[in-house]
């Protein structure tokens, strides 16, 4: 479960990076309100990135990095939204590693 | 009259910064950790702006708008991707992990963190040596930028050498007295000031020329710049844009003064907030600064050969005092990059070269003194080198970022893969650095591969070598293979 969540966040990071430059508007010169459309896309995309990053800090901060054993809370409530089942799944995953 | 006004503004600015530094000095403990990291107590606003101001170099205010002027505004996209997204992701992936490790094991530098994990003094020295190799020309670049800007602003009344010298003396004084805390505070002032000033400059110029629509029309109707508005060009190819964004984005995370900030945050919350605000802050700065550069091209503002676009356009459209204020701010931004770099460079030198190789038993108090001496030596040498500066800002800056980028992937592998061995990471760093340096200095090693830059190819090489050599070697007995993984996050 936790591993799936990690893969999901990695995918989000890749998509955020991949579309920060609007490749699909390549060669396009349409101007809206004084700026090229591709620049508006970029501005909007960066705003979106900030929102996504904020959500990440609320929901998943520590994923892929923090490895404390079960029951040892990280202290500032970052893992809210994850029930006890996720926590045990997480330590099981850690236990698999060499 | 304007000369006196301009110099007055610049001197006033320096004095203000010095006052902040003195306040910081009074709060400083005489220990190396406090001098380098303000004892790991930095809050959100200060961490955000100090990292931000550190990125705001001569590059953002002078070289960046110059590129937009010459090649079009696509530069905004490259910078947005590299700083707003890639660096932000690394802020978490490298930064948060480093922060946890730094708190647990009291690391102050990247080399120290790696040297401890791989039980290798040589690796520690290698990372510090490589970093100083790239840091030095970059500090020199900032001095060149400041000297040139002062000369242009005063129309030659302050010659280049005097300007760069003045800045150097000021920086030395400031860093030696104020340490990280003072630097972080002035960075915050400068970062906030420059953000506001850039927007005021943009609105001012746009108000004079009739709004963004008119400025963009001028670009579209001019034959030379008609294709500025269409995304991409012979200069901005997808390969080049991606190579540049990726190498510089990773390079930023390995730049000593940025990397060291990962250790300085006061709490998790500070790191989280800075992370989420990062993309917005980048857009807020890059869009106005680079659009000014691009629009200037359509506005028939003649830019004299070798001069920067931003000061010329400000001189054309805004009052003298405002132009002087912005240039003073930009110079302050350059200084804030440089003083952070001086401090980090000095910490790499004292902690990773002097202490392990010359005198292991140096006391805390003495290391603090040594660090300050290191600042003086480093800054003076960079100033002397800047007097002979042969290459342009962009070439130097770009080389430094790509050079640092070569460190990023071996470090990432070490942080996340337990099987990394000492031989693996050392080989990865040596090979990628060797390759990239060769591409810069030897004609036989090409600088581009089907449009992809040598910097990016070198990063790939570093990754491959680190993984391959780790797979075929066994870890040394004294390596501490689990310290990057076990018990992280438990306070």
Quick structural summary:
The complex is a heterodimer of chains A (98) and B (491). Chain A is mostly helical and 98 residues long.
Describe the 3D structure:
The complex is a heterodimer of chains A (98) and B (491). Chain A is built from 3 helices and 2 strands. By secondary structure, chain A is mainly α. Chain A has a two-stranded antiparallel sheet with strand order 1-2. Mean pLDDT of chain A is 76; it is low at 70-98. Chain A is elongated and about 50 Å long. The two termini of chain A are 20 Å apart. Chain B is mostly helical and 491 residues long. Chain B has one domain: Sodium/glucose cotransporter (Up-down Bundle), CATH 1.20.1730. Helices cover 76% and strands 1% of the residues of chain B. Chain B contains 18 helices and 2 strands. Chain B has helices at residues 2-26, 32-37, 44-55, 58-71, 75-105, 110-117, 121-153, 160-209, 211-221, 238-254, 256-259, 268-298, 309-317, 320-357, 364-386, 393-416, 422-441, 454-472, and strands at residues 448-449, 452-453. A two-stranded antiparallel sheet of chain B has the order 1-2. In chain B, strand 1 and strand 2 (452-453) form a beta hairpin. In chain B, helix 9 (211-221) packs across helix 12. The radius of gyration of chain B is 22 Å and the shape is globular. At the A-B interface, helix 1, strand 2 and helix 2 of A face helix 5, helix 9, helix 10 and helix 12 of B. Chain B: Belongs to the sodium:solute symporter (SSF) (TC 2.A.21) family. Chain B: It comes from Natronorubrum texcoconense. Chain B: It is a multi-pass membrane protein. Chain B: Its main location: membrane. Chain B: One of its GO terms (cellular component) is plasma membrane. Chain A: Residues 66-98 are annotated as: Disordered.
């Amino acid at each position: 479960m936790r591993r799936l969540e990690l893969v999901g966040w990695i995918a989000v990071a890749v998509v955020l990076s991949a579309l920060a430059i609007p490749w699909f508007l390549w060669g396009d010169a349409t101007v809206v309100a004084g700026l090229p459309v591709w620049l508006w896309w970029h501005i909007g995309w960066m705003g979106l990135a900030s929102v996504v990053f904020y959500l990440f800090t609320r929901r998943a901060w520590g994923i892929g990095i923090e490895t404390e054993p079960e029951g040892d809370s990280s202290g500032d409530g970052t893992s809210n939204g994850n029930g006890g089942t996720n926590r045990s799944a997480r330590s099981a995953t850690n236990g698999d590693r060499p | 009259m304007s000369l006196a006004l301009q110099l007055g503004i610049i001197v006033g600015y320096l004095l203000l910064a010095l006052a902040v530094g003195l306040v910081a000095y009074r709060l400083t403990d005489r220990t190396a950790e406090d001098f380098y990291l303000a004892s790991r107590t930095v809050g959100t606003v200060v961490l955000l702006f100090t990292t931000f101001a550190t990125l705001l170099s001569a590059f953002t205010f002078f070289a960046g708008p110059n590129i937009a002027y010459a090649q079009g505004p696509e530069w905004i996209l490259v910078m947005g991707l590299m700083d707003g997204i890639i660096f932000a992701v690394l802020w978490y992936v490298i930064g948060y992990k480093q922060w946890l490790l730094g708190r647990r094991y009291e690391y102050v530098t990247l080399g120290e963190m790696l040297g401890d994990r791989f039980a290798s003094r040589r690796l520690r020295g290698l990372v510090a040596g490589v970093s100083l190799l790239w840091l030095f020309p970059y500090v020199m670049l900032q001095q060149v930028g400041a000297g040139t800007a002062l000369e242009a602003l005063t129309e030659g009344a302050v010659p280049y050498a005097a300007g760069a010298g003045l800045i150097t003396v000021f920086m030395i004084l400031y860093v030696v007295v104020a340490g990280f805390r003072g630097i972080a505070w002035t960075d915050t002032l400068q970062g906030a000031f420059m953000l506001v000033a850039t927007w005021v400059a943009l609105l001012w110029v746009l108000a004079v020329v009739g709004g963004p629509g008119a400025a963009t029309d001028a670009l579209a109707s001019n034959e030379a710049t008609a294709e500025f508005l269409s995304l991409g060009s012979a200069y901005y190819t997808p390969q080049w844009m991606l190579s540049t964004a990726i190498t510089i984005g990773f390079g930023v995370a390995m730049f000593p003064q940025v990397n060291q900030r990962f250790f300085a945050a006061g709490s998790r919350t500070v790191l989280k907030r800075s992370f989420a605000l990062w993309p917005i802050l980048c857009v807020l700065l890059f869009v106005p600064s680079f659009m000014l550069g691009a629009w200037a091209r359509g506005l028939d503002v003649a830019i004299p050969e070798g001069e920067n676009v931003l000061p010329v356009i400000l001189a054309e459209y805004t009052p003298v005092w405002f132009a002087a204020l912005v240039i003073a701010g930009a110079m302050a931004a350059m200084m804030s990059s440089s003083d952070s770099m001086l401090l980090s460079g000095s910490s790499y030198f004292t902690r990773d070269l002097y202490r392990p190789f010359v005198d292991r038993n140096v006391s805390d108090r003495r290391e603090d003194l040594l660090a300050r001496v290191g600042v003086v030596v480093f800054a003076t040498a960079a100033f002397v080198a800047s007097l002979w500066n042969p290459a342009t800002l962009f070439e130097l800056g770009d080389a430094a970022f790509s050079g640092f980028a070569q460190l990023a992937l071996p470090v990432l592998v070490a942080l996340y893969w337990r099987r990394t061995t000492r031989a693996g990471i050392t080989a990865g760093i040596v090979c990628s650095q060797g390759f990239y340096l060769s591409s810069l200095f030897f004609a036989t090693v090409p600088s581009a591969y089907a449009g992809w830059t040598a910097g990016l190819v070198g990063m790939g090489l570093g990754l491959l070598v680190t993984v391959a050599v780790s797979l075929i070697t066994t870890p040394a007995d004294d390596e501490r293979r689990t310290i990057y993984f076990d018990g992280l996050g438990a306070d």
